[in-house]
Amino acid sequence: MEQRKYGLPTAITMIVGIVIGSGIFFKSDNILIFTGGNLLSGVIALCVAAISIVFGCLALSELASRTDKAGGVITYAEVFCGERTACGFGWFHTFMYYPTLTVVVSWVAGVYINMLFGIPNTLENQILIGSVCLALVFAWNVISAKLGGYFQNASTLIKLLPLALFAIAGFALGNPTASFAQDIQSVQTASWIAAIAPVVFAFDGWMVATSVCHEIKNSKRNLPLAMIIAPILILIVYVLYFVGISSLVGTDQVLALGDAHVDSAAQMLLGTAGAKVVLVFVIISVLGTVNGLVMGSIRLPYSLALRDMLPAAQNYVSVNSKTGIPMRSALLSFLACVIWMVIHYVTQKFNLMPNSDVSEISIVVNYLGAILLYIAVMRLAKKGEIQNKVRGYLLPALAVLGSIIILIAGMQNPLFWYNVLLSLLVVAASQLFYTTRKTK
Fold this sequence. Notes:
By secondary structure, this protein is mostly helical. The protein has helices at residues 8-19, 23-26, 28-35, 39-64, 73-81, 83-117, 123-143, 145-173, 176-183, 189-194, 196-203, 219-249, 251-257, 261-270, 272-297, 300-306, 327-349, 360-382, 389-410, 416-439. The chain has a single domain, classed as Amino acid/polyamine transporter I (Up-down Bundle), CATH 1.20.1740. It is 77% helix and 0% strand. The longest helix is centred in the N-terminal third of the chain and has 35 residues, at 83-117. The two termini are 30 Å apart.
């Protein structure tokens, strides 16, 4: 019998903590570059991109309320789409989606730690320190599931402090009303659609919370609640922060300074020491995202093994009686991350993915795959299992629309089709294994 270790607050903070990482701190300038400095267009882009998470969460909460079996998204695919689809989702998430996200965010932690301590910010140092961070986060989650949950709660609260500081300061000291009044005349559809691309990463990761659904107390009630509360909170925080810091520093200065605009804002409010303080907050924020991703990823091989969807599945189904963690599952997840860290290093070292990273290989494809789950919600409504038409049809339809918008934004990347091909190869391998297993 699985231990129920996490309550509603941890479920909420897991989603918030994973989604709000380093991206929101350093994507404001990228958004404004696409919108030509138009603040209102940037806000529209944030809201449109949020469709994918807000309505995606609302749609998946319908599935979450109907099962609490281990696996999260894998379970939803299995129960509502079939075993073959579940195997594809599981392999994609286990060997591509989770590890690529985890590796990139760990690498970002290495970048900021180098900056904080004045270590030469070479790619080798970034990868080395990022790998140490990755190993430490895996270690404390394996030693104690509760410790990982406590860190998730604490890091989420800590990372909200600088966001709140810049939001409040921007509205108090800046003049967002004047900016919006000026921008209304120049909003262009093309600009805010293009601006969706840099915010996709900042909104990603929300599905991870579903992987620990079987460890959440009263999960049929608490997980759907968390999946409704968290994305709405995230959208509010993002919009307030984006408007606040853009008003505080000025959109022209944000464009001119690039990522350094955060440091500039910190110095305006807190002095020279403010840059270091904000950097500490950002590092905690990034590590909180790594922690949430690891909390989800260490359960994935275990969830697949329970369904006999992995080679030598019997090796991954045991759970440590003291920690409540599937240890071999955690080890396989860690090894997948190590492999992707090496791949990430090679792609960055030789500039194989200009202005991109290995996480983009899977993010857009994941939203594409999620459409299958949204359609499953509509099928439940058609069968009469969901009586409310808004919940059964409108919400999943809006979630599908959000995924399509993100797909269109992702297609602007010149490497998009190469990324899709690699993702499809992983899914194809899962289908080959599934067919072979069935034949035997």
